[in-house]
Structure formats: structure tokens, C-alpha cells
């Protein structure tokens, strides 16, 4: 499952927008954007929002090519985030049973590049690999730029 985590209270505060009402509005906006995709939106304990997409829907075993189901989620996320000033951390796992993180890093870079090709600024991204995990995770935070 891909997880897109959005620490919205900080992001909305940076925009000068009231927290609780705007958090609910952002949640609704993302729910609408993700309709018809395998992305599942959830609210995290820190008031961030997360989108989960199963790893099996994201990448084939041993491969770093974005599958159509993940592409659909990334397309919607790119459209949703295009005019935001957020920072995105893309974290992708290796396959179950593998200890080598290189595959996870290639997957994270591929997902990041996919989003960049859809109009997001490359300077907004960081990438990371993670061990065995059933999700790809994209963490969205408020920009540290003025």
C-alpha cells in the first residue's frame, strides 16, 4: 500500500489557514481526488493524512516500473499537489524476503520521477528506501522555504 502522509496542521498554519476546518477540507479534497483508485485515505495520529496503496498494486516483484494502479494514484496526487508549496518524501520498500535496499531506492526514485514528469518541481522531493513493507509511502509536509 502506498502511503501519502500529509502533516496538514503545520502546512495549513504556514498558509495562514485555520487548522481544523481546513484539515477537514483537505481530507475531503484528497478523498475526492483518489476516488476510483486503490489509494485509501486515512487520518494519522499526528493529524496528517495518509494514502495507502498495496505494494503488489504498485510494482512487480523485483521491478521498479510503476504499475497502472500506482500511476493512477500518482496522477491524482500530482494534480492535487501541483499548486501547493509542500515537500514530498517518497519512500519505497524492497520486496518481501529481500534485505537489499537498492530496489526500494530505485522504486522511490521512479515514483518521484513520475510525479516530476507530471509537473511537480524536483526541488520539492526527497527519496528514501525502506525494508520489507507492504506500502509505498509519500510523506507530504509544509515547505521550509519562505
According to DSSP, the number of beta strands is 6
Structural class: alpha/beta
Taken in chain order, the helices and strands follow as EHHEEHHEHEE
Beta-strand portion reads: 15-25%
CATH hierarchy, class? Alpha Beta
Q: Provide the low-confidence segments as ranges.
A: 1-21
What is the overall silhouette? globular
Q: On the 0-100 scale, what is the average pLDDT?
A: 79
C-alpha Rg, in Å?
A: 15 Å
Helix content: 25-40%
CATH topology: 60s Ribosomal Protein L30, Chain: A
Number of domains: 1
**Cα distance spanning the termini:** 33 Å
What's the tally of helices?
A: 5
The CATH architecture classification is 2-Layer Sandwich
Short structural description:
Helix content is 38%, strand content 23%.
Topology:
Layout: E1 3-7, H1 8-14, H2 19-33, E2 40-43, E3 48-52, H3 55-58, H4 68-81, E4 86-93, H5 102-117, E5 125-130, E6 137-142
How would you sum up this structure, described in words?
- By secondary structure, the protein is α/β, with parallel strands linked by helices.
- The protein contains 5 helices and 6 strands.
- It has a single domain (3-142), classed as 60s Ribosomal Protein L30, Chain: A (2-Layer Sandwich).
- It has helices spanning 8-14, 19-33, 55-58, 68-81, 102-117; strands at 3-7, 40-43, 48-52, 86-93, 125-130, 137-142.
- Strand 4 (86-93), helix 5 and strand 5 form a beta-alpha-beta unit.
- Helix 1 packs across helix 2 (19-33) and helix 4 packs across helix 5 (102-117).
- The longest helix is centred in the last third of the chain and has 16 residues, at 102-117.
- The termini are far apart.
- 36% of the residues are buried.
- The model is unreliable at 1-21 (pLDDT under 50).
